[in-house]
Inverse folding.
């Protein structure tokens, strides 16, 4: 990291994850443009739409270019090969995806590899396997948005993971809103992630501003 360059924890202070409601690629790109212009520092592509890989790659490359133009970190969910082919900054893997070490072997040493870790045991294993940051959740109720989300663990779940792995950036996810963001930070999270609360919001710039205020971002 160069002097004066934001740390990974700083860049993960607010993560916008693409919502399933934006399955149409053009609608997703339009929402991303609006969100990035409003000041989203990290964007994660979580694409569950049933689209051919060529279309998925085209979308990911368009998002990567858009993120570069705004100085925004771009992470691809689940698919390390797509992250490489699209020129993304990194990949995020969950418990049902490739292990962190296997993802690292695909993306190489210079890209970011994040991992979902809702428990201290999973957190320790992910860090030992080489994860650069952890997504911890579900903190609050998230199953209406993410049908594979775990039951809510509350801010105490963040605190337990923080105690287990004190030196790695943690992003709280699952039902996070501007109103409960401070609870996540107080429990030990470095940042928060949202799906419907950011790019899925009716007023994307307003949603970004509300999170910025909750996070005390400039």
């Amino acid at each position: 990291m160069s002097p004066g360059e934001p740390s990974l924890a700083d860049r993960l202070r607010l993560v916008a994850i693409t919502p399933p409601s934006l399955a149409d690629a053009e609608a997703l790109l339009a929402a991303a443009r609006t969100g990035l212009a409003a000041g989203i520092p990290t964007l994660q592509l979580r694409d569950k739409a049933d689209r051919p890989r060529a279309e998925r790659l085209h979308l990911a490359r368009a998002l990567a270019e858009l993120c570069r133009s705004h100085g925004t970190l771009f992470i691809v969910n689940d698919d390390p090969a797509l992250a490489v082919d699209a020129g993304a900054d990194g990949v995020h893997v969950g418990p049902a995806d490739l292990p962190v070490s296997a993802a690292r072997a695909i993306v190489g040493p210079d890209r970011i590899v994040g991992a979902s870790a809702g428990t201290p045991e999973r957190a320790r294993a992910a860090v030992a396997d080489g994860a650069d940051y952890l997504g911890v959740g579900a903190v609050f109720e998230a199953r209406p948005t993410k049908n594979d989300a775990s039951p809510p663990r509350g801010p105490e779940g963040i605190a337990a993971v923080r105690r287990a792995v004190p030196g790695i950036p943690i992003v709280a996810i699952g039902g996070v809103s501007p109103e409960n963001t401070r609870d996540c930070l107080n429990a030990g999270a470095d940042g928060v992630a949202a799906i419907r609360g950011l790019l899925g919001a009716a007023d994307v710039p307003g949603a970004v501003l509300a999170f910025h205020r909750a996070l005390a971002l400039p």
Remarks:
- Strands lie at 14-17, 42-45, 73-77, 90-93, 112-116, 133-136, 170-172, 191-194.
